[in-house]
Design goal:
The complex is a heterodimer. By secondary structure, chain A is mainly alpha-helical. Chain A is 76% helix and 1% strand. Chain B is of the alpha/beta class. Chain B folds into two domains: 160 residues, Rossmann fold (3-Layer(aba) Sandwich); 130 residues, 3-Layer(aba) Sandwich (Rossmann fold), CATH 3.40.50. Classes of the chains: A mainly alpha, B alpha/beta.
Chain lengths: 333, 316
């Protein structure tokens, strides 16, 4: 009995990975341009921004929260660098990057404070409000102009590749950085006391508070962390496009990140979700987008496919946990 | 249990693949493949550009990969599409309508195949050609038309699209420069995110703040012109010269019905057709002009009927 459960458990964990592999096989059969090394590198490159944002979003989702301000935050961070360059003639990349990171963390911190100190009913409210504020600020700081010509040290993270040669586009640095962050997040969430506290806050905030943990403190740090990841994503966005475009603050980065976390097994009710599941989630989304582009499918089909994947993976997750409770109840009898 | 997920996704992809197979092009004897990435495929205006592209594909017997992101603010999505398309092996030329002209050179990098821009021009050292009119010039003509109707000393407002978007900014600037050059006072510029209902709200507010004292409304698309017309009608303000932009079917019909005064049309079908035509020339090594103007026409009650017939024939 226990043995069977373990197999089920492993299958459950590998589910998204199997889905990704199946997706890869289907795309390889249907398009000769898919399984080409340079295209695989494209997928990794296109995964980076969503992956970085998703890592922060995952931690927020584990606390049963949500952060809708991620996309606007990332763009604001990019635009802050643009403003520093245009208005204050700062060309030192270290100062620019520091400004970018501080902006992101400050915004995240404000999100946390709004939730805990102002006692706004749900992070949906505070972060939705902040999303709009940040969209406006992004336009404001650069006076609605798109800013380009960033120093190469600023665009390095998003634009450089290693082992580049004539026939090989190289491994994108932004994806390697993403992997480093994911390993860091994995260790942080699973091997540190604070990381486990985050799961506790999501699982049962009242019990966590009563056991002597300052939940407000945990939440503020969690939202600041999400803000920090947005800043890194903003840096990659500048590197990928070469510009900071304030009007892209309305791009739905938030829903893509939430989708990736949900596909990877996170839940809105908190206490659940793993870093590796999320990584598979972001890879599934960018593989679908990349594959459908190669297949010449228009955005109507892309929307439908990604929407269905979200619904199906959440449904499977719900069914699995229902079955688990059932087995547990049967075993208890 | 999640095995089922794998199966389901596989099935979805299969269905999608079959669906795409139906709409994609037949292989021709000709070996030329041209990538075309428009600003979006989900709007009527871009539907005309796409129709031109498809007509040229058929006429010249080449293979065209036609794509476009979900909306005209999906900047990252377009950049991803460009990257993905450039890495396919059999691509001979790429036609792009850049959403973010400032970043296009960065995304294209040191691409060696012919690159053509359509609708919106951009800086790029290896550029083969630009096919289009330029939003600024087209809007300038629209502004001049409106100023001619009302004369010197008239009061105008401009309803623009998404603040910070290059396209919207150029049209806005074209209108303002033309109006001011003709002695018209531009009292206010507001942003309606390219939607009809927001344009109605904004127009209502502007009428209130200007005490209904508005002679000219210049909008950067047809939907917003319709919205502005709604607001004027409800406020009982008559005789306002309302100018739209794009010349899509509903816009032209509004001109015919007298709801709006004019629409600036940039002949999108010709843009699409000529872009592919010149891309083929470039691949074959023939000479291509650096700038190919596709022309602007101001659609008024006089020529609206003919233009509508032209649009309908194109979409067949």
């Amino acid at each position: 009995m226990t043995n069977k459960l373990e197999i089920k458990d492993i299958l459950g964990k590998l589910g998204p990975l199997l889905a990704l592999i199946a997706l890869g096989i289907v795309l390889t059969i249907s398009n000769t341009n898919f399984l080409v090394i340079n295209n695989i590198m494209n997928i990794l490159r296109q995964t980076a921004v969503n992956g970085l944002i998703s890592a922060g979003m995952l931690v927020v989702l584990i606390t049963a929260g949500i952060d809708l301000s991620v996309g606007a935050n990332a763009i604001l961070c990019a635009c802050m660098m643009g403003m520093m360059m245009e208005k204050f003639n700062v060309s030192n990349p270290i100062i620019l990057i520091l400004g970018c990171l501080l902006t992101g963390m400050a915004v995240g911190c404000i999100n946390g404070l709004l939730l805990t100190k102002l006692r706004l009913p749900h992070p949906f409210v505070s972060t939705l409000g902040m999303k709009n504020v940040l969209c406006g600020l992004a336009l404001l700081v650069v006076a609605t102009k798109t800013v380009g010509n960033f120093p190469s040290a600023v665009t390095w993270l998003g634009s450089s590749n290693i082992f580049q040669s004539t026939n090989f586009a190289g491994i994108p640095v932004c994806f390697l950085v993403l992997l480093v962050f994911f390993i860091g997040f994995h260790l942080f969430l699973n091997k540190t006391a604070f990381g486990r506290t985050i799961y506790c806050v999501g699982g049962n905030p009242e019990a966590t508070r009563l056991s002597g943990i300052n939940t407000d403190h945990v939440l503020i740090i969690v939202y600041s962390l999400s803000g920090f990841m947005c800043a890194i994503a903003g840096l990659v966005i500048v590197g990928r496009s070469g510009v900071a475009n304030p009007s892209s603050a309305i791009t739905p980065y938030d829903t893509d990140a939430i989708a990736a976390c949900i596909i990877g097994g996170a839940s809105f009710s908190g206490g659940k979700g793993t870093v590796w599941g999320t990584l598979i989630g972001v890879l599934i989304i960018s593989t679908i987008r990349n594959g459908l582009t190669l297949l010449n499918a228009a955005s109507d089909i892309q929307y439908v496919v990604i929407g269905l994947v979200i619904i199906v993976s959440a449904f499977i997750d719900v069914t699995r946990s229902l079955m688990e409770t059932k087995t547990r109840r049967l075993a208890a009898k | 249990m999640k095995k089922v997920l794998a199966l389901v996704i596989a099935m979805i992809m299969m269905v999608t693949f079959i669906a795409c197979e139906g709409s994609s092009t037949k292989k021709t004897n000709d070996e030329i493949t041209i990538g075309v990435i428009l600003k979006t495929l989900s709007s009527e205006y871009w539907g005309y550009v796409a129709a031109g592209v498809k007509a040229a594909e058929k006429d010249f017997g080449v293979k065209v990969n036609l794509q476009g992101p979900a909306s005209e603010t999906s900047y990252d999505e377009q950049n991803n599409m460009i990257e993905t398309t450039l890495s396919t092996n059999d691509l001979d030329a790429l036609v792009v309508a850049p959403l973010q002209p400032e970043s296009i050179a960065f995304v294209l990098g040191n691409t060696q195949i012919p690159i053509l821009f359509v609708d919106t021009d951009a800086e790029f050292s290896n550029k083969t050609a630009y096919i289009g009119t330029g939003n600024y010039e087209a809007a300038y003509l629209g502004g001049e038309y409106a100023a001619k109707q009302k004369g010197k000393g008239a009061i105008a407002v401009v309803i623009a699209g998404v603040q910070g978007n290059t396209n919207s900014y150029e049209r806005e600037k074209g209108y303002i420069d033309a109006l001011e050059a003709k002695g018209v006072k531009v009292a206010s510029v507001q942003y309606a995110e390219a939607t009809t209902d927001k344009a109605t709200n904004i127009m209502e507010n502007m009428l209130t703040s200007l005490k209904n004292n508005v002679d000219i409304v210049c909008c950067v698309n047809d939907d917003m012109a319709a919205g502005a017309a709604n607001a004027c009608k409800q406020a009982g303000v008559e005789g306002v010269t309302i100018v739209g932009f794009d010349g899509i079917q509903t816009g032209v019909k509004n001109v015919m019905n007298g709801v709006v005064s004019a629409s600036v049309a940039q002949s999108p079908y010709n843009m699409g057709y000529q872009a592919v035509e010149n891309a083929v020339k470039a691949v074959k090594g023939e000479e291509v002009e650096k700038v190919i103007k596709t022309g602007v026409s101001i659609i008024t009650s006089e020529n609206a009927k003919d233009y509508l017939a032209e649009l309908k024939s194109v979409l067949k």
